[in-house]
Structures are given as C-alpha cells and as structure tokens.
C-alpha cells in the first residue's frame, strides 16, 4: 500500500500531541505556527482521519490521534536507533521497551535480577506487563513476551529459553499421612489443585513410559498461577504439578518432595519461550533483553 503521508512530519505531530497545543509545539520546534497547522492538516488529509480536536482554547487527541501518536513514537525510535546503528554510534541500547511475562516468571525469576539488568543497560526504560492471559502482542504494542508451553503462530518468532519439566510434588506431612512413599497409588485421587493451563479432563501423562491420561478438571481447584499451586501443596493440600523452576528451592530444602516417580508429563507443557513479531525490526534494546533472558534462564 502506498504511503501518502510524509514521515518527516511525525516529529511535528508528536510535539503537538505532547504539548497539546499548536503554539506550544511551534515554539518548541522553532517553526511558524502556520507551518505546524499546515503539517497537521496534511497528515489528517493523507490519513483520512481527524487526529486532533481543536477549539479556541484546547487541543486534544482523538482516538485515531492517540493510535497514530503511539505508532509515531515507535517509528521515530526505530528511525533514530537504526540511524545510530548504521553509523556505529550506539554503544548501549536505549529507549522504552515493553515486555509481557507471566506472574510466576516475573516474581521468581525476573524480579530478583532487575537491578542487574538496570546496571547493564541504564538507558533502557523497561516496562513489564505482568499477566497470565494470552496477548495479541502486535495489537497490544508489546515488544516481547515470555510465554509458557508449545506455540504455533506463523506471525511470530519463537525462541526457546528453558526446557522445564513438570514435577508432581507434595508436602512431607501429606506424604506421611497418605503413605505415598510406600508404593504407587492412584495419582488422580491426590491431585486437589492444578494450574489452569493444565486443567483438562484428559491431561496426557506417561506411567512407566506407557501413555495414559488424568482428569485435572473435575473436582480439582484451578488457579492461573503455579506459585499458588506450589504454596497450596506445600501447606498440605494434596499433590500438585509445578514446573521445576518454581519448586527447585523447596525440593532442595525438603519442604516439598517429588511423588509418583513412575509418572512423567509432556516435556513441552512447561517450556519457556520468548516471542516477538517477525515484521518488526529487532532493535538493540530487544536483542539486549533477549540475551539477558537467555542468560537468566541458563542459570535456573
């Protein structure tokens, strides 16, 4: 599709959007007020939408103007960073970076290392969106997202960060009370709580490498956070499935123990990956964060 608007007009529009005034923007840019007004009109005509609502006292962005403002910021950041990169002038990545990640990963893995990231990349303004919901990262203006489980989306680049495994764990007190250490008993009767992503009527498992299934939907509490599953099980609420990275410490200190050793689970169920759009130039700041994620997950 042919672009009808001039990219050189974006800095003018951004200045108007941020100052919410034609006169204020003109002063900041050292341009005649009439030139700024003309540029805004040309953009609106080329785009076929009204970007600003103007009266004698106020200027405000329309809904379309807010969208175009966000896109303009991204375009200008990419233009600026690309120019610097091509000239070999960027020694440290910089600019705003928006990253989405699950609650558990944010709390247990990322938060303890944020100070390290800030020290390495002081010029990156990091915004972390903590959510367990699936996001349309293009629509939501997300640069990168950490996701759990298998993915199949041709519009995204997927880089695996960590091949985790699901551990079936229980507290020592529960194991003792239910005599789970004596022999293989029915796993189904002991799972009281499960992470929502695994809550299905026919969750695939293997028993001594033989394919089987378990119902993690009926009569099972469901929560969209593996840390809540871990903590509930730790308090004695049956057995539960927890990704290894979120129960590693508890297994080491003995507050949780693995049970049902003959049972194994799909290896992709707890895999961590980072995704980003294929159509967007991967900036230095995105590459820096991906490298940091890789190092962080290698240390798990």
Automatic annotation (TrEMBL):
Domain HTH lysR-type: 5-62
Coiled coil, from the record: none
Xref: CDD domains: PBP2_CrgA_like
Pfam families xref list: HTH_1 (PF00126), LysR_substrate (PF03466)
Top-level taxon: Bacteria
Keyword Acyltransferase assigned: no
Protein name as annotated: HTH lysR-type domain-containing protein
